[in-house]
Amino acid sequence: MGIANPLKVVLADDHPVVLAGLVALLRRIKSLEIAAVCSDGDSAFKSIVSLKPDVACIDIRMPGLTGIEIVQRAKELALMSQFVFLTGSVERDEFDLANECGASAIFHKDTASEDLLAWFEERVSQHLRRDPSEIANSLGAVRSLTVREWEIARLVARGMTNKEIARDSKISEGTVKIHLYNIYQKIGVSNRIELANYTIHNLTIQR
């Protein structure tokens, strides 16, 4: 018997090992349905248009249509899917393009498992509540941050640079940038000053 109203997801990546890993990871989440698995941009876009998933998790660079082009075309068709990008690099232009097209999050392929799992678990929880106001609620946004994201937010509030945060957290600067992008998207801020102020104000209600 199927799960009522599962979060419907389309996955796309041109690397078979990455794709298999994504499938295995997301199958651990209850109330999530993997509606399609694609290995190129063209088939991914067709699946998104026909299946209208709640979330499309796609490689930012694929044969055929790129992840950016897929999102741009989906927006032109007024599709309501959320988009999550996977990347094997951390190039500046990717962050700018992802932000411009409205991607909900970016995850590095080599280090994404824990954070990607947490992101999807939160989306499943929101999906089952079916309460849009909860997603925009400040407390809901705070609680959607992972432990790692809160650590980085606190370090930003202390005035530390990405290089200093990377050294303190024992991760790469690129990974710090990815975490910051996802934090900005979750809580609705656009720069480090806004993040620092937000963090200081909400420290007492973090999970």
Automatic annotation (TrEMBL):
Record's keyword terms, sorted: DNA-binding, Phosphoprotein, Transcription, Transcription regulation
CDD domains to which the protein is assigned, alphabetical: LuxR_C_like (cd06170), REC_NarL-like (cd17535)
Annotated signal sequence range: none
Keyword presence, Coiled coil: no
Keyword match Transit peptide: no
Modified residues (4-aspartylphosphate): D59
SUPFAM superfamilies documented for this protein: C-terminal effector domain of the bipartite response regulators, CheY-like
Domain Response regulatory residues, every copy: 8-124
Record-annotated HTH luxR-type domain positions: 138-203
A Pfam family this chain is assigned to: GerE
InterPro entries attached to this UniProt entry: CheY-like_superfamily, NreC/VraR/RcsB-like_REC, Sig_transdc_resp-reg_C-effctor, Sig_transdc_resp-reg_receiver, Tscrpt_reg_LuxR_C, WH-like_DNA-bd_sf
Protein name: Two-component system nitrate/nitrite response regulator NarL
Biological classification of the source: Bacteria, Pseudomonadati, Pseudomonadota, Alphaproteobacteria, Hyphomicrobiales
